[in-house]
Amino acid sequence: MNTRKTMKAALEGCDRAEVAAAMRMTLGSLNNQISGERPYLPKGKTPNCLDRVYSLIDATNGTTGKHVILQALAEEFGYMLIANPAIRVDETPAIAQVSRILNDFASMIDEFGRANADGRIEPFEADRIRRRWEPLKCTIEEFVLACENGNFNA
């Protein structure tokens, strides 16, 4: 990932001074992070704030296999983190994936029923439903992406 290019694109059309102030840094420091300039390192060699975040995400994912930081960032900004499709037609036929999705969905409907058995859904029950829903919606999206990519074409 070219973090400097990404930062430059993100700041296009922004007031850099305003962004720098929001990040509690000087405009010069922000510009140096984009260009990679420091007096003691060659241009493009100084890690910027995005480099450090990228390294943290890479290190935590590499050691845990989880995307906790990416998931939290996506949710914070109102997005859903979806992995590129990993489903392959030679590994899992489409009908098996559909069956698994339907079973998971049915299980989630059962969770709704258990939560609403007393006529109310308490916050802890809603949390339990959310924990089941998040992976399911990602699985469904991955399946649709795999279909769009032709992964189930023989």
Secondary-structure blueprint of this entry?
Blueprint: H1 3-10, H2 16-22, H3 27-35, H4 49-64, H5 68-76, H6 94-115, H7 123-148
Notes on the structure:
With 154 residues, the protein is mainly alpha-helical. It has two domains: 3-64, no CATH class; 94-148. The chain is 63% helix and 0% strand. It has helices at 3-10, 16-22, 27-35, 49-64, 68-76, 94-115, 123-148. The radius of gyration is 22 Å and the shape is extended. It starts with a helix and ends in a 6-residue tail after the last helix. The mean pLDDT is 85.
Q: Please work out how many helical segments DSSP would assign.
A: 7
SSE ordering: HHHHHHH
Any idea how many domains? Answer: 2
pLDDT < 50 stretches? none
Distance between the termini: 34 Å
Strand content: under 5%
Structural class: mainly alpha
List its salient traits.
single chain, mainly alpha, 63% helix, 7 helices
Quick rundown:
The protein is mostly helical. The protein has two domains: 3-64, no CATH class; 94-148. It has helices at 3-10, 16-22, 27-35, 49-64, 68-76, 94-115, 123-148.
